[in-house]
Write a structure and sequence with these properties.
The protein has 126 residues and is mainly β. The chain has a five-stranded antiparallel β-sheet with strand order 3-2-1-4-5. Strand 4 and strand 5 form a beta hairpin.
Length: 126
Amino acid sequence: MSFTVNLTETPLRSGTFPAKVHSTREIKTKKGDPMVFVDWSLLDGPDAGRIVSQGIVFVPQMVSRNNHILRVLGQPHGADVQVDPDAWVGRLALVKIVLEAQGSQVVEITSVGTNTALPQYEEIPF
């Protein structure tokens, strides 16, 4: 038996949305640098429940951005920290999504704690 189905995926909408870290996976870039892929689960808006990924490369040129991401996720940051992506799972943030040629991308994250418009979202206790 055969059937026809439309598997065209609707791109995520651009904007800033509350999200939580659904999962993480550690890899190495082609140059051997540590990289973490974060799968964000959107919590609100027209795309609630959908997953959008973000790749984070940990290299000296990105130290300011890396510290910002770790700070937003409530993780140790600064000099000589042990990065534990598994500890990110369940953490909340506001993610800014833009639609690019390769699809929807997370381009920025900010702390939920700095946005009083989202009182219904609470950090998952660890």
